[in-house]
Amino acid sequence: MYNAIHLYRLARWLYLHHIPLIPMMIQLIIFCGYGCRLSYKTKIGKGTFLSHGGLGVTVSPKSEIGEGCVLGFRCSIVGQPPYIRTPKIGNHVYISPGAVIQGPLIIGDHVIIAANSVVTKSVPDYAIVGGIPAKIIGDSRDLDYDIFETKGWLDGTKEFMTKK
């Protein structure tokens, strides 16, 4: 199953090895094929997954995304003028479809962001946030299942909602 993240990784490798033009062409292919604005200049950790192939995902080029994250359909990670800094996402963060993360903020590790939420302030580790503007609504350690097990369900390798 092809995913925009695979093309991103190729473009990022070429960019880091100072091979010109090809990363920009791959970025264009990602945009045309997936409607995904994902720059080769963005730092994305290992194991991060874009659900639905990355359709409609928008990520600011200066943003950083940690390891093992899941980015949902049509989510956006963008800066906010006049600030120079962009969002920094921790490890093992689940960003649900339609969520918007905006501004110079930091999302902690093991965070879950509910669908269609608008996050404008930093979020501590293990929080579950939701709403417009997003507020803390729970703790991810209190769940009776591991939300990251669903990543395998998205690509057909695991059952949905595996118990701990």
Structural account:
Helix 1 packs antiparallel against helix 2. Strands 3-6-9-12-14-15 form a six-stranded mixed sheet, with no helix packed on it. A five-stranded parallel sheet has the order 1-4-7-10-13. It has helices at 4-16, 22-34, 150-154; strands spanning 37-38, 43-44, 49-50, 58-59, 64-65, 70-71, 76-78, 88-89, 94-95, 100-102, 106-107, 112-113, 118-119, 127-130, 135-139. It is globular and about 45 Å long. The longest helix has 13 residues, at 4-16. It has 164 residues and is of the alpha/beta class. The model is unreliable at 156-164 (pLDDT under 50). It is built from three helices and 15 strands.
Described by strand count, sense and barrel closure, the largest sheet is:
6 strands, mixed
Proportion in β-strands: 15-25%
Element-by-element helix/strand order: HHEEEEEEEEEEEEEEEH
Major sheet: arrangement of strands: 3-6-9-12-14-15
Structural class computed from helices and strand pairing? alpha/beta
Describe how the helices and strands are arranged.
Blueprint: H1 4-16, H2 22-34, E1 37-38, E2 43-44, E3 49-50, E4 58-59, E5 64-65, E6 70-71, E7 76-78, E8 88-89, E9 94-95, E10 100-102, E11 106-107, E12 112-113, E13 118-119, E14 127-130, E15 135-139, H3 150-154
Parallel strand pairs: 1-4, 2-5, 3-6, 4-7, 5-8, 6-9, 7-10, 8-11, 9-12, 10-13, 12-14
Antiparallel strand pairs: 14-15
Helix pairs in contact: 1-2
For this entry, give a set of tags.
15 strands; 6-stranded mixed β-sheet; 164 residues; 3 helices; 5-stranded parallel β-sheet; disordered C terminus; alpha/beta; globular
